[in-house]
Amino acid sequence: MPKAKDLVELSYLSEAVSDMSFLGLMRLLESARAFNLKNGITGILLYDNQQFGQIIEGERSSVMKAWKRIQEDKRHHRVELLEIREITERNFPDWLLRFYGGETLTRDYPDFSEIVGGMDKHSLTLMNTMRASQI
Ligand SMILES: Cc1cc2nc3c(=O)[nH]c(=O)nc-3n(C[C@H](O)[C@H](O)[C@H](O)COP(=O)(O)O)c2cc1C
Questions:
Q1: Is there a domain that residue 2 lies in?
Q2: Whose alpha carbon is nearest atom 26 of ligand 1?
Q3: Which 3 state secondary structure label does DSSP give 101?
Q4: CA of 66, closest atom in ligand 1
Q5: Per residue of the chain (135 residues), what is the pLDDT tens digit?
Q6: Pocket of ligand 1 (CB under 6 A)
Q7: Domain presence at residue 1
Q8: Rounded to 5 degrees, what are φ and ψ at 92?
Q9: CATH number for 43
Q10: Domain range holding 103?
Q11: Residue 92 forms part of a structural domain
Q12: pLDDT for residue 51
């Protein structure tokens, strides 16, 4: 019998094929969020300097479905899995897909900073951890 809750968290890093425009990012988020909502996936997506960092969490089968979609997406490449691990509870329960753009994005699109609120301490730490683990 399957466990009632088989929660996993998946993290990866990737590089945008070309620098994403504001509209391009919005389109991506729209499609990603729609799938996540339907499949009970929550998480966080970071974008800065053409680099993506993402953590998604949910039931294993749903997360693996999203992971397949993510890997097949031609808007990014060098998709590098950091970790898939079992978790007992969600770290981002309320975030369908929280999005953070970094300095370069808010510089090029100043309006964006009002929407995403820039990076807070938590997401900056996360981004740095993700960057460090890339080496
Ligand atoms: C950086 C990045 C993050 C993504 N995050 C998600 C995600 O969280 N959930 C998901 O289902 N798809 C995610 N995707 C994949 C796209 O949302 C989606 O599969 C792709 O846009 C195809 O969409 P379509 O089925 O509407 O054509 C991501 C893609 C990229 C490049």
A1: no
A2: 31
A3: strand
A4: 11
A5: 555 579 999 999 899 998 878 788 888 988 999 999 999 999 888 887 788 889 999 999 999 999 999 999 999 999 999 889 999 999 888 777 676 666 666 666 565 555 444 445 555 566 666 655 544
A6: 28, 31-32, 35-36, 45, 52, 54, 56, 66, 69-70, 73, 75-76, 97
A7: no
A8: -125, 55
A9: 3.30.70.100
A10: 7-132
A11: yes
A12: 84
pLDDT reported for residue 76 = 95
Number of domains in the chain: 1
Within a domain: 110: yes
- Per the document, the length of the chain is 135
Which residue is associated with the tokens 């019998």?
1
DSSP 8-class letter at 10: E
Which residue has tokens 């590098």? Answer: 80
